[in-house]
């Protein structure tokens, strides 16, 4: 009887689901750290770890927001252009002659710009009925073009308090960008796990038709999923502008590939309805650490990109196998 109680108590404390990919990701992460530290002992140095964690924030925040959209069975490929818009809006607001806009207002306006683009995506997908891939490819092109149009040259940012938001450290060791990422992950994790909206997101991804029959307003929930994705992508743009102290039209190019790799590797099913933010968080650490490790062992940049492609294909393959197994078990 005692053994039964112990097992029961552990199951309640365990944040991973039985079929979760997270334990496997933790093993992979540990093995990866050991591998790169053997090849180059500098990999586990304090300075390098600070560099790794300071570069995780942008992609992690964007992956957390994109996960909500993917959980509904949709895609948001426009996140990289929203990142560019968020960065450019921030930089332009700091460069209005004779006008000083407080940092919170600048950030709020940039996030509202991201929310507006997310709302456009959500409206076209949820209420017009256009496929999410087609919709977000279109908005990706539109807002990338606007980014190039309004930021043909670098917009420099000389306001040090804003720059400190992206470059600063807590207690001189913990990057502020990493803390922002933790806050976003915790907030979205709690939303998905403990709110009606979160339960609806999982239900819609698992079976949209059944969700409608159950009285769930699928259009409204998917709409807000895209809005959240837009906000987190714009937040990534604000942080990128803060870290680099400038913005330009090319910001975010190719970023959707990295963010989508994190989401899929983290166990968010492309079919929708399955996955947790815990896995996405570990996947963020893995992708960021792999990029850093490959650079330390002098792997050419082109091969680093190819390696990420291999990871994405492998993650999609694993996800498709898991989906098939669930369908077979249901049958």
Overall description:
- The protein contains 15 helices and 4 strands.
- The chain has helices spanning 2-13, 22-39, 46-54, 57-71, 79-93, 103-128, 132-150, 160-167, 176-194, 196-206, 208-213, 218-244, 255-265, 277-296, 301-330; strands at 155-156, 169-170, 174-175, 246-247.
- The strands form 2 sheets. Strands 1-4 form a two-stranded antiparallel ribbon.
Terminus-to-terminus distance: 35 Å
Helix content: over 70%
Low-confidence spans: pLDDT under 50, at least 5 residues?
1-18
How large is the radius of gyration?
Answer: 20 Å
Number of strands: 4
Task: Tell me, briefly, the overall form.
Answer: globular
> How would a crystallographer describe the biggest sheet?
2 strands, antiparallel
- Secondary-structure-based class equals mainly alpha
Number of helices: 15
Q: Percent of residues in beta strands?
A: under 5%
Strand order in space, largest sheet = 1-4
Mean pLDDT: 84
Question: Order of helices and strands, N to C?
Answer: HHHHHHHEHEEHHHHEHHH
List keywords for this structure.
331 residues, mainly alpha, two-stranded antiparallel sheet, 4 strands, globular, disordered N terminus
């Amino acid at each position: 009887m005692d053994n039964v109680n112990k097992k029961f108590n552990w199951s309640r404390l365990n944040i991973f689901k039985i079929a979760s990919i997270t334990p496997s990701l933790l093993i992979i992460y540990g093995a990866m750290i050991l591998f790169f530290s053997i090849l180059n002992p500098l990999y586990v140095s304090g300075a390098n770890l600070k560099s790794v964690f300071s570069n995780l924030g942008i992609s992690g925040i964007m992956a957390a927001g994109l996960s909500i959209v993917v959980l509904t069975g949709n895609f948001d490929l426009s996140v990289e252009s929203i990142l560019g818009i968020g960065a450019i809006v921030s930089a332009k607001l700091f460069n209005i002659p004779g006008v000083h806009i407080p940092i919170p207002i600048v950030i709020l306006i940039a996030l509202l710009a991201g929310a507006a683009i997310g709302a456009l995506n959500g409206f076209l997908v949820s209420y017009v009925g256009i496929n999410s891939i087609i919709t977000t490819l279109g908005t990706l092109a539109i807002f990338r073009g606007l980014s190039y149009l309004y930021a043909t040259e670098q917009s420099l940012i000389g306001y040090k308090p804003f720059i400190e938001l992206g470059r600063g450290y807590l207690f001189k060791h913990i990057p502020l960008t990493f803390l922002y990422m933790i806050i976003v992950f915790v907030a979205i994790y709690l939303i998905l796990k403990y709110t009606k909206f979160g339960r609806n997101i999982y239900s819609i991804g698992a079976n949209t038709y059944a969700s409608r029959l159950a009285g769930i307003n699928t259009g409204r929930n998917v709409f807000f999923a895209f809005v959240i994705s837009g906000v987190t992508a714009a937040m990534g743009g604000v942080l990128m502008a803060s870290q680099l102290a400038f913005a330009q039209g090319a910001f975010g190019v190719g970023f959707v590939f990295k963010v989508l790799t994190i989401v899929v590797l983290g166990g968010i099913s492309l079919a929708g309805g399955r996955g947790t933010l815990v896995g996405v968080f570990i996947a963020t650490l893995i992708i960021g650490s792999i990029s850093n490790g490959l650079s330390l062992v002098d792997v050419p940049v082109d091969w680093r990109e190819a390696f990420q492609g291999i990871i994405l294909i492998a993650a999609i393959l694993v996800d498709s196998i898991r989906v098939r197994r669930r369908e077979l078990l249901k049958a």
